[in-house]
Amino acid sequence: MFRSYAATEGVKDEGFNPPDAGDFNLPPFIDGNTFATKPILLAFFSVTLISIFFILASRKSALVPSKLQFAGESIYGFVRNDLGRDVIGHEFMRFVPYLFTLFTFILVNNIFGIIPLIQFPTMSRVSFPYVLAAITFFVFHYIGVRRHGIIAYLKGIMFIPGVPKPAYILITPLELATYFIVRPMTLSLRLFANMFAGHLLLLVFILGGEHLLSGVIGLKVVSPFSFVVAIALTFFEFMVQCLQAYIFTLLTALYITGALADEH
Amino acid sequence: MRIFQLATTELAAGEELNPLIPHTSEIIVGFVAFSLLYIVLRRAVVPKFEKAFADRTEAIQGGMERAEKAQREAESALTQYKTQLADARGEAQQIREEARVQGAAIIEEMRTKAQEEAARITSTAQAAIEAERQQAINSLRNEVGTLATELASKIVGEALDDQVRQSRIVDRFLSDLEKSK
Asked: B147-177, pLDDT tens digit by residue?
């Protein structure tokens, strides 16, 4: 799929081109329209998919759930209880819709990376993790300011109680950097880099296997191993994709808890 | 090599290739898509799931509360029955005790009465015997006096000279006596 794009540029015949960042720059279907790209389509597709699934699953809200309702409830219950209630505490219900959206949106868009024919993790486009991290950034600071007032909130971040005064010279800049730079950066880059690297890894083994297959007989023999590794890596990727969705949501919940807490 | 190729074919290819540079269109779409999903899930999905959870909790808790209530009722009924049983036993014991005491009292009373009755009968009989004896003594005394007087007058009137005559007079007197009876 991506090679065909490369092929149009006439580079295929010059030996094996290892996949690189260019493979993530898919051209628009409609020339010049930057909205008509695969990642954007996938983002909307994921929204449709998640909405339909959960609306169908939750429609009846029966006492004894059907299989579909049970599946939906399991995912919702996981986010609600394990990420919401257990992390945030008694006020968790306010944040469950946000955490739930975050988790399902990231999870489905990640898993697109290994779904046949789709095979592109939306989150490997850095814009999406940036947006999500920005929303989380805004949400937890907003909650902190609402809870404590802006001065008390900033004071809580900058001057951790129980620290000797001279240490503030060192700690205050670090804390400020943590809250306003490191947290959103790590949140978005962790997700992006995992998806980016995972996809690149799959490309290397799949395209590599393909290339080996077109080589001399000795290389043809080696090529199945490349595909086997690609399949194994697909399973590994599935794990990473779920894990990254979980981590992003968990960290958001933790940041919210920190903003709600009386002392930072 | 690829970078150069792209650089020649695309405008601003260097910027495009840096995977850390976000695209405006994607940022807009990311925000819009996420917001849409948030609205849908918050409006349509979360309340329904929460309702299902609440209903289930309600059902389970309601069932447990009902069971607890039934158990409490059963326990209270059991204690009530036990108390009643104990009461009944106590009452029966009391009644038996009373009956025993009453029985003893009745027996004692009867005995006393019987003894009194016996004593009364004995004394009445004795009194009657005494009276009759007295009466007999009195009448005997009268009759013996009369008889003696009568006998003496007869004996004197007949002039008693021999033994045979004497006994004949006594016999006649006795037979007269028999006839007069």
From this structure: 877 777 776 666 656 677 778 877 888 888 7
Q: Does A2 touch chain B (CB under 8 A)?
A: no
Note whether B29 contacts A44, CB cutoff 8 Å. yes
CA terminus-to-terminus distance, chain B? 184
Q: How far is CA B178 from CA A60, A194, A215, B155, B173, in A?
A: 136, 163, 181, 19, 9
State how far residue B68 is from chain A, nearest Cα, in angstroms: 22
* Residue at A254: amino acid letter: L
Cβ proximity of A192 and A107 under 8 Å? no
- Say yes or no: B26 contacts chain A, CB-CB below 8 A: yes
Is B12's Cβ below 8 Å from some Cβ in A? no
**Do residue A73 and residue B52 have CB atoms under 8 angstroms apart?**
yes
Cβ of residue B16 closer than 8 Å to a chain A Cβ? yes
Helices B24-40, A38-58: axis angle to 10 degrees equals 0
- Of A47, A89, A77, A104, which Cα lies nearest the Cα of B50? A77
User: CA-based diameter of chain B, in Å?
Assistant: 213
Q: Is the ipTM of this complex over 0.90?
A: no
- Domain span at residue A205? 2-26+105-260
Which DSSP state fits B42?
Answer: I
Domain membership of residue A243 (yes or no) is yes
Q: Are A61 and B55 a contacting pair, CB within 8 Å? A: yes
Please write the tens of the pLDDT for every residue from B32-67: 999 999 999 999 999 999 999 998 888 888 888 889
Q: Which chain A residue shows the shortest CA-CA distance from B57?
A: A63
The pair of structure tokens assigned to A74 is 């399991």
Q: How far is CA A165 from the centre of its chain?
A: 40
Query: Which of A:96-135 have CB within 8 Å of B?
Result: 96-98, 100-101, 104-105, 124-128, 130-132, 135
Query: How many folded domains does chain A comprise?
Result: 1
C-alpha distances in angstroms, A185 versus A188, A237, A248?
5, 22, 12
Using the 8-state DSSP alphabet, how is residue A15 labeled? S
How far is the C-alpha of B26 from the C-alpha of A188, rounded, in Å?
A: 14
CB nearest A11 (choices: B5, B16, B46): B5
